[in-house]
Design goal:
Number of helices: 6
Shape: globular
Structural class: mainly alpha
Helix content: 55-70%
Order of helices and strands: HHHHHH
Radius of gyration: 14 Å
Length: 116
């Protein structure tokens, strides 16, 4: 994969996850300030995540999912969610096992799990 292409794809994923955080946070009627406080970060930092300006760590994404009482899989756009097996869904929900993966390796692992 060409590095420029990877960077653009990665930025798109970061932006999509950020928008999803914002949408799900609002649906659950949680303010930026409240979520940021529970995460131990500033609301300015959370805003940067939500607009896709800053990358978010897997650990932080797991924490957000727990605080919002949701599954980690909810942050990802999956074209055919009904085709994901129970085992694959469990793997995505148990995201903690991927914490040591680098950004590109993590993206590849996720794409392997959610491919049609």
């Amino acid at each position: 994969m060409h590095m420029l292409s990877y960077k653009n794809d990665n930025q798109d994923l970061i932006g999509n996850i950020g928008r999803k955080i914002s949408t799900l946070r609002r649906k659950r009627k949680v303010s930026q300030e409240e979520l940021a406080s529970k995460l131990g970060i500033s609301s300015k930092q959370l805003s940067k995540y939500e607009i896709g300006r800053n990358r978010i760590t897997v650990d932080r994404l797991i924490s957000i999912a727990q605080i919002l009482n949701m599954n980690i899989i909810d942050f990802f756009e999956i074209n055919n969610a009904s085709s994901i097996s129970k085992k694959e869904r469990g793997s995505l929900n148990n995201f903690s096992r991927f914490r040591k993966l680098s950004g590109e390796d993590l993206l590849l692992k996720i794409s392997e799990l959610v491919e049609d």
